[in-house]
Amino acid sequence: MELRQLQYFVAVAEERNFTRAAEQVHVAQPGVSAQIRRLERELGQELFDRSGRAVQLTEVGEAVLPYARAALAAVAGARQAVDELTGLLRGRVAIGMVTSHNVDLPGLLAGFNQDHPAVEITLREGDSADLLDGLHSGSLDLAIVSVGPDAPEGLALQVIDDQPLVAAVSHGHELARHTVLPLTALRDVPLISLPNGTGLRTRLMEGCATAGFAPRIAFEASDPVMLAQLAARGLGAAILPGGYAAACADRLHSITIDPPALRGRLVLAWRAGRPGSPAGRALLTRARAALRGAGARTELPPN
Questions:
Q1: Which of 256, 247, 289, 291 is nearest to 145 (CA)?
Q2: Which domains does the chain have, with CATH numbers?
Q3: What are phi and psi of 249, to 5 degrees?
Q4: How many CB atoms lie within 10 A of CB 42?
Q5: From 61-70, 74-83, 170-179, the region with the lowest mean pLDDT
Q6: pTM for the whole thing?
Q7: Which of 216, 230, 218, 167 is nearest to 188 (CA)?
Q8: What is the pLDDT of residue 54?
């Protein structure tokens, strides 16, 4: 029985598909199938039912799966112990990021790769809700996300930026005569916003729910540049970070929303109280040092 056979077996069990499992372990599909067959011959029992569309574990396969996972985890643990003693970093590390931010992530990852070429780095882009789920599930080691005033449960944060959210309109818009408006004044105004799942949209929806109304979202786009362009054409009020709206002052008039005052925070987030892999810890340490500025601070979730 070989470790690669157990690795392929676990991959097929998780994917319920030989082709996807082969992609996961970076081996041609016939090679995965051949090794699984050898493992089945050695055990004297079939591990998978291949008769349906999706591959299913047999009763024997279900019984073997936890032992296969334990064996692979033991080997990974042994390698990690040796790596920590020798100072060698290898393995995999995964980082997530929201679409719009001003962090030099390519520079950060390039420097880490230069110092630790044996570590495989993966980068995933998504909205904040998706990336927070990835942190909780363990598929991500760290992520740059947008959050509200409180640290999400189970996560630690390093604040990168903290800005008020404003309503930005064209200079000819009927609301352009105001500099401050309560959120309820936007009840019937066509709003231009980032999509559901983004931190900015979540803050807007939370504020409107507290104020007792559902916002009228007329346009949504995943890029703040597009939001600004739509608002500049008089199509509604764009909900934007205050700093970004101020940078577009030639095209947009910013209106402070208060009450309630909405704020958006860009943070580096990671799982609190969990050691993680040596590679994950090394990248986190590097990222925290790179992002440490005058306003940076670390927050832990409540006990």
A1: 291
A2: 3-86 (1.10.10.10), 89-303 (3.40.190.290)
A3: -60, -25
A4: 11
A5: 74-83
A6: 0.65
A7: 216
A8: 83
